[in-house]
Amino acid sequence: MALPDAFLPLMDLPSSLQERLQHIETRCRDALVQADERAGREEMDPPGEAWAALSESRRAQLARVLAVSDFAADVLVRHSAWLLQLDADAELDAAPDRATLDGWLADALDGVDSEEQLHAALRRFRNARLLGIVWRDLARPAGHTMWDTAASVSRLAECCLEGALGWLEQHLAPRWGLPAPCADGTPQRLVVLGMGKLGAGELNLSSDIDLIFAFPEKGTTQGGRREYDHQEYFTRLGQKLIAALDAPTADGFVFRVDMRLRPLGDGGPLVGSFAMLASYYQDQGREWERYAMLKARPVAGDLDAGRELLESLRPFVYRKYLDFGAIESLREMKALINREVRRRGMDENIKLGPGGIREVEFVVQAFQLIRGGRDTELQVTSLRQALAHLPELELLPQAVVDELEPDYVFLRDLEHVLQALDDRQTQTLPSAAIDQERVALGMSHDGWCFEDWPALMAHLGETRERIRRHFDAVIAEPEADEEDAPAETPEGREAASRRVPLSEWRALWRGELDDDEAREQLAEAGFDDVAGALRRVAALRQSRAVQGMQRIGFERLDALMPLLLDAAADSEAPTVALERVLPLIEAVLRRTAYLALLRENPDALEHLMHLCGASPWIAEQLARHPVLLDELLTPATLYSPADKARLADELRQALTRLPEDDEEARLEALRVFKHAQVLHVAASDIAGARTLMKVSDYLTFIAEVVLERVLGMAWRHLVRKHGCPQRHDGSRAAAEAPAFLIVGYGKLGGIELGYGSDLDLVFLHDGALQGTTDGPRPIDNSVFYTRLGQRIIHLLTAVTPAGALYEVDMRLRPSGNAGLLVTSLDAFAEYQRHEAWTWEHQALVRARVVAGSEGLAERFTAVRGEVLGRERDPGRLRDEVVAMRHKMREHLGSRADDREAGRFDIKQDAGGMVDIEFLCQYAVLALSHAEPALLEWSDNMRLIETLEATRHLSGDQARQLHDAYLAYRDTSHRRALAKASGTVDEAPFHVHREAVKALWRAWLEPGGDD
């Protein structure tokens, strides 16, 4: 007999494994003899012929596979011919693709005409395919990895599900009929959602398959001997599909089926309509079901309908905000698992035990649940794909992923070997010595090499220790009383001696201290208004909103408040910080994931206190837009605003994740982006990390990037409906290149935006006066551009949950509010040449293109230069500028009682900011015909520098204007962050003010008074 020769390459195995192979040899011989006897043949073929046909390398692989896997041995004992067939089909070296699998199964089911025959055919098909999978997993042909094994098992499950379902539908149709089509005429089929590792496409060798059944619409079946309500039809069909796969027969089973992840589990209906599922998850869906739905994927039946169903459920799974409440849920799930592990003595379980497979999955899925709504790259069912995205999203260091991924692969490889032993769903390490030897052999391949069981266990211990460390870093409880931490320095010991333990803050929050104790504690912690702080905390605790919170929400608040009070006590002004932060807490009582965010991230809480203590404007912005709390998680970017190129790239990436036609979502993303970036600027401003000029630069960059995107959105919207307009030269504007300009005036044009500045805009186009668009619903060019301007304004000013983008002022367009909303560049040029007032030319000094066509921008710049560079009558120009300035002071300057009290409006009073702006504007209008360099800039600082370079200002005069303007603008920024008016004590600005007034008199009012 040739079988023993197959084992020669492994004769150096331990004697126990050699004995095992000899035992398998005997079983094979006996089985072949019995098979021939049953066939009634008088003479048998030599039983070793099938094995003799194998190559030497195949014999070596065979010995290895049989030494490890009882499943493989049992299959080959019963079906020896399968091995040669698998070899002939190259299935021992490479997994067949899905189309090949489907073809093979269709052949296997051809002629099957009863459910009993279906069950037998499915099981034989499955066992043959699984034999090939086990062979490849243990023999490891070139390039084969754990991921290939997992993908092969997943494909096999999907193929069997679809094959069985299709056969059952056809077989039952004469009796039961087929479901009525949907309202739109689409045929209805059962939708089979794969959950867990099946949904991920990463099944293990002997895995259960978790399924959810659904159907699109209610109705009754048609064409059968009797009608069934869709609910009953799909329930019966689902039951038969489960039996086809799960029922044990003489041939075993196909896949064990678990339906407990469906709504209400075993107590709920087996199948649900789309409407029922949507209602359930919206109203009753629990946190663990969000976790389960992360991996949901249509695997059989109507795949398109399944994808539509999952798309409708996406908001349930992925929150728009960062959902740190998900960590608590995962923590609770892990605690339940740990208790079960301890109760049942399962520490040796490599899936559920410490540092096991489940902990890697929890790490990855925590980030998916927390950030998947924002970082849509994480909206994938595959753990491998999600893990690969974490470093690029800066959620985990690459070094951590470089440890987690191979450690996970090792555990899954080990899991596969354990299950290959006997085709049994197990993750428990064996206790029998012979099985330990088999597992060590199965784990010794190209990826790993272990001399014996102790060597394997040593590596396993190191692996689990690394995984547990990374798991704790992400999932472990954040709250650890810092009162127990050692104070290593004198300063630390002094701070520790003053520090109130968290347990005491918890008692104060819960109202467990009497008034005297509470007041004393607050006073010792540095609160100056003790009574006010105590009253404010008590008011929150006793408020109707808090009393009406659901259990999980209140638990999050109760866990956060001691940490918040502690952080407030650590801030520079505890009472102020607490007073400013509590409105934010009140604002998020119904969105408790933000409470979890602050609890889970002590550093974020510290940044929150610092920023709110420094600026009521920031505190108000955070309370109004809690989504901005997400920004506190990354201090590296919080205090480092992006430059324009990075801003544009970040906004592009954020919008790329959203469907092109989902304008509401894109608009919401724009607003969140804008508010977040402004917060970064304000944080860096408060931290003193950016100069005043840089602060205005960054605020201006944000507006420009947003305007460019808004113009693109509005343009594409109009072009889709009406086509492209005709240009003034007769050509057509390109669908992706707006023949349009947004011109910024005022602070936007002068690159001097402040917090909360509105945008002074003018819209110009390049369209022909006569002509229409070329789309399916053509409109006149003028109508197209008017609607474009209206849409831009709508996108900028519409209020969404994230607020509005900007307030917009269009009064500087030609003829002001009485003029057209959008003007052609030619008409704009004519107006500026012949009709514009001097104050409109002053405004044009601060104008520049901020978004739109580059070619059109060059033409605008030429028009601006021509208009501003005209030679003007100096006396008339001076009179008109002075008259306008006096009129502004009269209407906008400080009141008489403020002036008498020594108060000064740094913007509008004489010697203030606007005087400097008027001086610069006058200089451009009066001098640029002789000094073209003055036409290059729209911002006052560089205009002052140019006036000095051209000797129209002395060095001292330029420095005085420069210093005064910076002082005024810096104060304006600070007052805006403090939500204070622009009227200040005059004394600190007296020198600046007098220098500006002196230059004003010298240039514009010789001999005049103040």
TrEMBL record:
UniProt keywords, alphabetically: ATP-binding, Ligase, Magnesium, Multifunctional enzyme, Nucleotide-binding, Nucleotidyltransferase, Transferase
Enzyme class: transferase
Positions of the Glutamate-ammonia ligase adenylyltransferase repeated domain: 60-310, 606-861
Stretches the record annotates as Adenylyl transferase: 490-1010
Region of interest (Adenylyl removase), residue spans: 1-479
Domain of life: Bacteria
Recorded catalytic activity of this chain's protein: [glutamine synthetase]-O(4)-(5'-adenylyl)-L-tyrosine + phosphate = [glutamine synthetase]-L-tyrosine + ADP; [glutamine synthetase]-L-tyrosine + ATP = [glutamine synthetase]-O(4)-(5'-adenylyl)-L-tyrosine + diphosphate
Family classification: Belongs to the GlnE family.
Designated name of the protein: Bifunctional glutamine synthetase adenylyltransferase/adenylyl-removing enzyme
Organism: Modicisalibacter tunisiensis
